Each structure stands twice: as structure tokens, then as C-alpha cells.
Amino acid sequence: MKRNERRGSGRVHGGSGREQRVLVVDDEPDIRELLELTLAKIGLGVDSAGSVAEAKERLRATRYQLCLTDMRLADGEGLELVRHIAGLAGDLPVAVITAYGSAENAVAALKAGAFDYVSKPVGLNQLRTLVKSALSLPERSTAAPQGQQLLGESAPMREVRDLIAKLARTQAPVYITGESGSGKELAARLIHLGGAQRGHAFVPVNCGAIPETLMESELFGYRKGAFTGANQDRDGFFQAAHGGTLFLDEVAELPLHMQVLLLRAIQEKRVRKIGATQEDPVEVRVISATHQNLAALVETGRFRRDLYYRLNVIELKMPSLRDCLEDVKIIAETMLQRLARQSGAEPSRLSGPALQELEAYDFPGNVRELENILERAVALSSEAQINPDDLRLHPLADKDDGAQAQAAVAGNATEGALGSPLPAYLDRVEREAILAALAKTGFNRTAAAKLLGLTFRTLRYRMQRLGIHEPEQDGR
């Protein structure tokens, strides 16, 4: 049997029963043979090529499920092969394995469409993990679950959906930017659902909501007896996301000492619990996001430059809703249907003038604000149709937000109080004021509490009592 046609005895088959085959591209015969033997042992059919030209010939003749290529080849670079395969518009993942590893080469390979980028020598466990992840990628046509789609047909939304589909099929670290309420977490979840990690946990973490003193134990866990109150071993977010995706929202809020620990965890793929004497391996894809300008924070010394480059391999910018106003209609209708399902009532309808008013509004809080506006309109409207007056699109002035938010409560108390029992009326006024503050702050409860002159704990209690929940972000 020829070396470049070596096959495994315990072959792995896809769901359709066909053999799964790998193409190995390297100009060193010894490396090709080593990879062939290793892949054959885990049950894969293997072909090999020593040049870019030979690899292209094999790609024309055979359908592969994975391609492993060296970066430097006799007649070109592995990047040329990565771009060639990406141009075929197929589902073939390509991993670049090279002895000339560098951050620049890794970024170039991942941006060109490589599934992953690893440096030689490659350990057996590392290779098995890479192969397993690549072969478990879903078909591109796999649809996201109901309620977890990015709705809209505007040009910005189509571009975002296309990029998410590409990013899902790589292991590249993704950095998501965008204003509050623009759907950064939903984008991260869609990348997870479209990738090799979809069968494992998606763990979202709001870095700005964790007290600094608890940050390390929350991320990495702790051992029993590590500190007062540590009555048993506890896993952190990294362990909870093992095999899946860890989404670090508002990553700019991480204190500097935690940035050092995070960088090590990402680089080494190992974490140490507080109180432990050894590190534990973790396989986690990290996706980060923030509404702040991370590059500017790097320049001012508030964010580590090495961590920034580690996280920001590929940037995904979420468009604001005011840049996609043509999508407001379909997003709003989807939200109204969901609100109706929750209440068991018939869906409310937007009148023509109400829709026009929404489409002319600039939405400082983006889709999250649209959700709050519609929830308030449904609660306050006495008809099945939502009219412009029900929307109450009157954003608070910037110069004295706190005073005006509180004045909204006092002012509303003088209007129509005799039309309903006092407790019900006060609940309605309180709910309206809280929703207005949440809309103004992009559903940032800490900022909303400050705006209303309340403590965070008090606001959280009142939200629970009034049934005000975090939006599910239908549509974005």
C-alpha cells in the first residue's frame, strides 16, 4: 500500500455511513507518515500530498472531511490552500500545523478561514481534540433554534449573519463590539450553536456584575477549605464551559490582576482552583464582548495589550438598530407574538402610525429598548392595537437624568389617579418609571437604579415584584 493512501483499520464513519477521510499536506515525508499513522490509529482514512499543487489535485478527486496543512510548502504557503478551500464554498475545515508559529501567522490563517492553527510539535491529545472538533462541525444549513435568530433583511444584518456563519466554523477567538442592547450575547450564542462546541455548554458571564473579590473564584472555582465559607469543592465558569463556549461579556471591566490570570488560562488551556496545588486542563472556546473601546483602554493602560491581541483575533461588530430601521417591523412583530404567547392572549398589532413612529426613532438602547417599549405598550394599551400614544417615545434628557426619572413618577401620580384602585395605579406608575429608566440605560440595572435613586438590591426586588424580566432578545 502506498504511503499516501494509508487507511485505518478501525474506520470512523459519518452519520450517512461514509468513511471520514483526512487530507494531510506537508513537504516533509517523515511528518506526513507520522500524521498518517496517528490518524489511521483513530480510525480515519488518510491521503497525503507534498505540495499545494498536489493537494489541489486530490481535492478535485476526493471529498474530504478535514485537511491538515503545513504553513510552508515547496511550491507555496498553506495560506494559499486555506484560501483555495474557502473559495470552493464547501464545508471542509482546514487546520494549519506549522513549525514557524507566530501570532501574525495565526491571525492570517484564521482570518483566511482556517478552522484552527497549531504549532509543531503537536501532542497526540491535542491532535485528537482538534480532529474531533473539526469532524463534529454541523452542516452550514443547520438552523438556529426558534427565538435565537438575528432577524432582518437589511444589508448590515445580512453581513453579520454571513460572518457569524463563517466564525462558527473556526476556533478563532472572536471579539464582539457594539452598543448596549445590540445583541452581542445572541451573536456569541449563534457562533456557539453553529460550531463544533454546540453539543456542550454555552456559559455567559457578565464581568461587570461580579465583585472584584469574587472574580477569581467565580471564573476558576475553589477547593474545600480554601477560605472561610468554602465548605466544598466548587467549579468555576471555565470548568462549567469545558468542551463548550465561555462568553465573557463586558470583558473591559476585568481588573488588571484578573487579566493576567485570564491570559494564562487561555494560552495554557489550564486553570488552577483557589486552594489547589495543581492546574486542571480545560478545552474552552472564549468569545468576548464589550460596548467600550478596548483599543483605547489598551493605550491608557487599563487593559493588557497581550490579552487584547489574544482576544481580538477577529472582530464582529454588531450594528445599532438605528442603522437597520427597515428591520424594526419584523423584529417588533416577532416580539409581540412572544409577549402574547407568554400572556396567553392574542398578539397586539402595531398601527401604521405607531410603526412609522418606531421607524423614525433612533433607539439609544437598541433592540433591548425596543423590547421594553413594546412590553410597556402592551401593558398600558387598552386595545388590541398599539397606537403612537401607547409607545411613549419620550427619552429622558441627558442633563438631569436622575431628576427627570424621579419626576416621571411624581408627575404621573397627578394624572388619572382616580381611574383605578390606588395600589394598582401605583404599581402601574412604578412599572412605567422602571421600564423608562431601563430603556434609557440599555437595561443596565445598576445604572437604572442610580437613575431612579434606588439601590441595586431595591430595584431588583421591585422588578421581581412587578414581573419585569431581562428581555430574551428576540430578533437581535
Overview of this protein structure:
- The chain has 20 helices and 16 strands.
- The chain is of the alpha/beta class and 476 residues long.
- It has three domains: 3-135, Rossmann fold (3-Layer(aba) Sandwich), CATH 3.40.50; 155-319, P-loop containing nucleotide triphosphate hydrolases (Rossmann fold, 3-Layer(aba) Sandwich), CATH 3.40.50.300; 323-466, Helicase, Ruva Protein, domain 3, CATH 1.10.8.
- It has a five-stranded parallel beta sheet with strand order 2-1-3-6-7, with helices on both faces. It has a five-stranded parallel beta sheet with strand order 9-10-13-8-14. It has a two-stranded antiparallel ribbon with strand order 4-5.
- Strand 11 (270-271) and strand 12 form a beta hairpin.
- The protein is globular, with a radius of gyration of 26 Å.
- Residues 1-16 and 395-418 have low confidence and may be disordered.
Write the layout of secondary structure elements.
Elements (H helix, E strand, L loop, with lengths): L20 E5 L3 H13 L3 E5 L2 H10 L4 E4 L2 E2 L2 E2 H10 L6 E5 L4 H10 L3 E4 L4 H12 L19 H14 L5 E4 L6 H10 L8 E5 L8 H6 L16 H4 L4 E5 L6 H13 L1 E2 L8 E2 L3 E6 L3 H6 L5 H7 L2 E4 L10 H16 L5 E2 L1 H8 L6 H15 L4 E2 L1 H4 L9 H12 L9 H19 L4 H8 L3 H11 L10
Parallel strand pairs: 1-2, 1-3, 3-6, 6-7, 8-13, 8-14, 9-10, 10-13, 15-16
Antiparallel strand pairs: 4-5, 11-12
